[in-house]
Input
Amino acid sequence: MASFGSAASRPCRSMWSGRCGTGTARSPSSPRSTAGACRRLRWTSICPSAGTLLFFYFDGQLDDGDALVLAEDRESWAGARVLYVAAAEEVTERGAPAGLKPYPMVPLTARVEMTATEPWHPSVRAAFAPGAPLGNRYDHPVCSQEFLEALWEFDEEVGHQIGGHAHSVQNPVEIEIAEAVLDGEVSRKDPRLSEEAGNWVLLAQFDSEDAADMMWGDAGALYWLIRPEDLAERRFERAMFTWQCS
Output
């Protein structure tokens, strides 16, 4: 199952958080998970078939939003974590720490659907215009307004999602993560940035959600990305976090 909220069972070592299990959803009323990148990820063969993934994010309740978890700020990375709890691992139910208001519990269900990414995503750019500026439009029909409008109509909501292509609110989140991993020391023209961006795939994204009283910035979304080899080895602690809002 998957859910937002507070009444989750957790290993004794973990902190309090909401949770998402083996499936995700676009929303409680219209859920869907994605399979757009499943072939590339070999998702069905390398993602755990049992157990629970716990996603932790410092949401600013304790300091009125003064501190932010940012991909470009290494000192803030501890504010977003992923824990994998194996099905056989002993867990205990805990409440929220003092000073934190628990989010309402919202059960989620899932369905498998296709996903699409932006034409300026590194993988699409590499296929159609390898020399084009990273993260920008380029001279090709996939960047035409008609094609873009068709893409937006196909996948107009960010939503909650496991796997597939991320629905970035701004520029591709893979580029943000690559810039963070490379310490912001390379330009958009440096091929190392494009190469690093191609090393990351979406683990999960969580949209702002009225039913759970979750609002990330200005109707934004939270994203966790992971390298396929770390996903295969269940090294979820190596996932990287970023967030975007409009």
Remarks:
- The chain is about 20% helix and 20% strand.
- Residues 6 and 18 are 5 Å apart (CA to CA).
- The longest helix spans residues 145-154.
